[in-house]
From TrEMBL:
It comes from Kitasatospora nipponensis. Residues 391-405 have a biased composition (Gly residues). This is CaiB/BaiF CoA-transferase family protein. InterPro entries: CoA-transferase_III, CoA-Trfase_fam_III, CoA-Trfase_III_dom3_sf, CoA-Trfase_III_dom_1_sf. It comes from the Bacteria. Residues 345-376, 389-421 are annotated as: Disordered. The lineage of its organism: Bacteria, Bacillati, Actinomycetota, Actinomycetes, Kitasatosporales.
Amino acid sequence: MLQLHCHAREETTAMTDRAGQPTGPLAGVRVVELAGIGPGPFAGMLLGDLGADVVRVDRPAGSPLAGDPEFELTNRNKRSVLVDLKAPGGAGVVLDLVERADLLIEGYRPGVAERLGVGPAACLDRNPALVYGRMTGWGQSGPLAATAGHDIDYLALSGLLGMIGPAGGPPAVPANLLGDYAGGSLYLVVGLLAALQHARATGTGQVVDAAIVDGAAHLGTLFWGLLAENRWRDARGVNLLDGGAPCYGTYQARDGGYFAVGALEPQFYAEFARLLELGEDAPGQYDTARWPELRALIATRFASRDGAEWTAVFAGTDACVTPVLTLRQAAADAHLLARGTYPAPGGVTQPAPAPRFSATPGALRRPPARPGADTAEVARDWGVAALGEASGTGTGTAAGIGTGAGTLNVDPTNSAERHQR
C-alpha cells in the first residue's frame, strides 16, 4: 500500500486542509465511476485530484487487462466498492449511489449501460439533477457507434494521425495520449463540469456524449483555419508546426540524445543560430526553398557535440532548445523538481495534480483504490445501506455485491475500458 508522503511543494500536493478535510475546488462534488481503463479512469482521477469524492464501482471479477492495483495510478484519489451489475439487486445498488451523486462516468458501448439497468434514463429518473458522462470512441450515434476501435483508430478518422510524422513517411503513433486522454478524458471532464454548472443553476441534469473522435477533431480547430487561408498544406511533415520547418523539430547530438528546437520567432531564432554557430551564409529561417539545406546544416552542427555540451550551451537562453527527456529523466529535471511536478508518494513517482490553484489546491489524498476496499466506508459516508458491511477481503455481503455470481462479461470489446472496443 502506498504511504501518503509527498515530496512536492505544499500548495500542489498537500494531503488535506488544516481541518483534515480534502482540499480542492471540487470538494463536495460526488462522482460515480463505472469501472474501466483508459480515458474514463483518467477523467475520474482528474476530478479526484481536484477534490471530488470519486467512488469507483468495480466488478467482482475485475478486468483481464488490469495490473497490480497499487500501481494503477489513475485510480488514485478514489474509493472503490464492488458491485455485480448482473446479479439481482446490483443495478439497484448503483442507482442508490447515483441518487446521491452529482456526476457519473460510464464508458460502455452504446446500449450496454441500458441493458444493465444503469443507463441515462434509469439514472436521471432516480436523480434528475445528475450529469451522466458517456465516454466512447465513436460516440453514441453514427455508422460506427457500435463498432470496436482504439485510440489510434479515432485519431486516424479525425484527420489528426495523418498530420503527425515525417514527410514521405508513415504516420507516427503518439502513444494513446492524444486520443484517449486529450481528445477523450479532458473533453469529458470539461463537459461534466459545464453540465454540473447548469445542473446547479437549474436543477436539471443531462447526458454528456464525449466521443474521442469528436474531441480529437476539435483539437485540430486551428489547422482548419490555416487550411482555409492556404497557410497549411494538407500533408504531414511539410508545414511550420509539424516538423517541416527546420526551426521547429528535433535533432540528434553526437552521443545519441535528441534536442527539441522551437525557435519560431525571429529574435529567438537569431539566438539559436548564434549559439549553434550556423554562420552568416546559412539559409534564411523562412527560405522554404532552402529548408532541406538548412535542416542538414542544423543536423550537422548538433551531431558535432555531445548532449551535455549542447545542454550547457543553450541553458538559460531564449534559443528555445530543450533536451528530449525520458520519463525517468524528466522526474529528475531541476525545473520539474523545483515545481514538484513529479512527487513520489510511497516511492512511486507520478505526476502531481494539475493545474494549480492558489486558494483551493488539488492534493494526493489517497493511493490507488484497491477494488472493494472502501465498500463499508462508502456505505456509511454516502448513506447507502445496500452496500452492506465489507468483509476482510473487501467484498460486500449485500445482494449483487462482490459475490462473484453472475459476474459481468469483461470482454474489452464490450466495456468501458476501450470505449467502443
